[in-house]
Each structure stands twice: as C-alpha cells, then as structure tokens.
Design goal:
Blueprint lengths: L2 H7 L13 H11 L12 E5 L2 H21 L9 H5 L11 E8 L5 H18 L3 E4 L9 H7 L5 E10 L23
Antiparallel strand pairs: 1-2, 2-4, 3-4
Helix pairs in contact: 2-5
C-alpha cells in the first residue's frame, strides 16, 4: 500500500486472533525502526520481545499492581481514572495480545521519550504495512520490579518508554473522527 493509505489505515488494535506472529516478521519490523529519526542520530532504542502468554499475563498483573499502588499513594493522580479497570482481575493491560514489544531507552537520556515515540511510530507503520495490528499501551510502562526488569533483560540504567502490543487483528475498526489541523499562526515573508 502507498504511504497515504498506510497512515490512514493504521489503527489502535486491542483484539487479536490467537495466531502467533513469526519471529522473522518481528525482526523485519524492528529492522524498519532503525530508520526512525533520533536526536543526534543516537539510535538509543533497545527492544524486548515477549511472545509468551504466561509472561504477558505476569507483566499485566505487575503493571496493574504498580499502578494501583501509585493511585493509592496519590488518589488525585490522573491515573485514578483507571482504578476500576485495573482492579478487575479479568482485565489484561496488554489485551491478551500474542506479542509485546518493549521499547527501552537510557533513563538519563533527555531525548528518550521522543526517540522512542518515533521508533514506535515506525514500528506501528511497518506492522500495519504487513497486515498486523498494534497498540501503544502506556499503562504497561509501569513495570518497576527490579527482578522482573532483570528477567526481561532490561539494563538497570534503562527504562521502558513504549510498550507496544502486536498481532493479527480480529478486525480493523473504522477510523475515529479527525478534525482539521489547528494552525495557530502563519508567519510568512510575503
């Protein structure tokens, strides 16, 4: 598909077929992320691929526990809007997707959020181009147990910046309404 079609077809997918994504395709998708821009071409992103349902479930439970603890400590936090769904034992933060990709960056890197967001966008477009669905799961970045992070292979000086679920979508939902760009000003020499 051409680029215009691709950017209009990419959707946040939260319902997947019970079909494994071949590791070779995941490698191809991650290979495409290397073309994402990054500050000073630092290319700081590192990736953890999780294709084990038991692990994905464990990470969901740990994310929920971490988030509920933060909400308890600060009930006025914006996270509090998620309290009821996070308390639901049946809710999986990663929507039972067959694959989770954690994009990690150095903790002290000032451009880490931007660099990881660009890598995530390239990952999502590459996946959509292959007929796969993705969704950035912000709630999944709250994994904090040092033993879990070590088991995942995440260096202690790195953090999870962008958790992306990946799989074959059960369906591709229609696009939500989009408004025209809001241009605040145009400074023109004419």
């Amino acid at each position: 598909m051409d680029f215009e079609e691709l950017i209009k077809r990419r959707r946040a997918i939260r319902d997947y077929l019970p079909k494994e994504v071949p590791l070779s395709i995941i490698h191809d998708i991650l290979d495409d992320t290397r073309f994402a821009p990054s500050a000073r071409n630092g290319q700081p992103c590192k990736f953890v691929i999780v294709r084990d349902k038991t692990w994905i479930s464990r990470l969901s439970k740990e994310s929920k526990a971490s988030l509920l603890k933060k909400i308890k400590e600060n009930p006025t936090s914006p996270l509090a809007t998620y309290a009821s769904i996070l308390s639901d034992d049946g809710f999986n933060v990663f929507y039972n997707a067959p694959c989770l990709i954690l994009i990690c960056v150095p903790k002290d890197l000032a451009s880490g959020d931007y660099d990881s967001a660009l890598a995530a966008a390239y990952l999502m477009f590459s996946a959509a181009n292959r007929g796969l669905g993705t969704c950035w799961i912000g709630l999944g970045s709250h994994l904090e147990n040092p033993d879990t992070l070590k088991d995942l292979g995440i260096p202690s000086d790195h953090r999870i910046a962008a958790p992306i679920i990946l799989g074959y979508p059960k369906e591709i939902p229609p696009a939500s309404d989009r408004h025209d760009p809001i241009i605040l000003n145009i400074l023109d020499s004419r």
